Amino acid sequence: MRAMLTLLSSSSSSSSLVLFSKKLFSLPKPSLTLSFFSRNTATMSTNLQSHAFAGNPIRSKTPKSTDPFSPNSALDSLKTQLLDNTLLQQPPSPDFKVLPFRKGRPLASSIPGEMTPSWHLGWISLPDCRNLLENSGVQLSEDCLVYLGSRSEDDVVYWAIDVSSEAGLVPELGSKQFCFVELRTLMVATDWADERAMGELAIAGNARALLEWHNLSRFCGVCGAKTVPMEAGRRKQCSNVLCNKRIYPRVDPVVIMLVIDRENDRALLSRQSRFVPRMWSCLAGFIEPGESLEEAVRRETWEETGIEVGDVIYHSSQPWPVGPSSMPCQLMVGFLAYAKSLEINVDKEELEDAQWHSREDVKRALTFAEYKKAQRTAAEKVEQMCKGVEKGQSLAADFNVESGELATMFIPGPFAIAHHLISSWVHQDVAPNGVQVRTDQSSSSISNL
Q: Model's pTM, two decimal places?
């Protein structure tokens, strides 16, 4: 737990966080183009540096083992600081900043803005982290911390820690207007045009995925013995010397596809029972062992809707660390898929409904969906939570039309890869990999097995 040196000792903690956050993120990343229509039908475009949760600014490269900012070197420095109390009284090099999590929720704060408040991750210093835990009767050790990355130009190494078992920390941090916020709430509250905010979201997503994986892998799946963290928490190993199995962070690959008809005029969208009312999205499903990505696209589409798929074109991919804790990080691999048949036969165990929607209908869904308003609502919710007052409000209520009537349908917001798959088809954009969304059947595809 670590980042603002004055979190518990001074009222200037919030300003320290702002100064730290403003200079944290500046790495160049590939961009996506977001195009949608506002409710007054004026087209809005935003250049996204990357999908939400991608483009982590402190993990662009892993330092070599001899580098002082590498996981093992940073861990050795961390051990030294924890053993030597005098070092904690002096400015260390490198500096360590720690992000606490509680039940999968990162610590966050909220800073007032001109129009909308902005959230920031609640980094705290190593001394403050140690003091917080000692006040709860817990001794901080290196095994509690997971390496997240570094910025050598700022002489800083970043760590995460799970404090779920320390309930006493909540009121103490709350008194400084910090709170633990669901990652999905922070996702919706993020201004997708703000590079700093997108960078912090990516860091929080990576940290949550690693910590949840640590919670799931406490015991060896081969012999049942306890596992111990290795390489600053980047992997684990069985403590049984006769087994010694190495265990690495889990990633669950998922294909997500926008299925398009042969005339390229309609898209197949679906609803699941867990969706908020009126929301439609792309088909998606997990990849099975021994299956290619293209085969998974075809199989999932057939199983869920009875539609046969021919050409499959890769669009982009997105890490998705906001699924269930049993799957700490899914990797969404996005495709455009072209249908060979049209008759829908919905698998009711998988979907509530699936329908063909015309380009105009989908464009209207983009027109009426007030994504910016939903973002402001979520940002204000975070602000209220950090002040100790949480307002219960459904974000879906913000998706309406100017007259006050509910839109007949809307699609997921810009934080989801589904939005970009759908938007790229509606506006015939070029995908991030340079592939043009085709306008006729003569276009080539990656695969037509």
A: 0.83
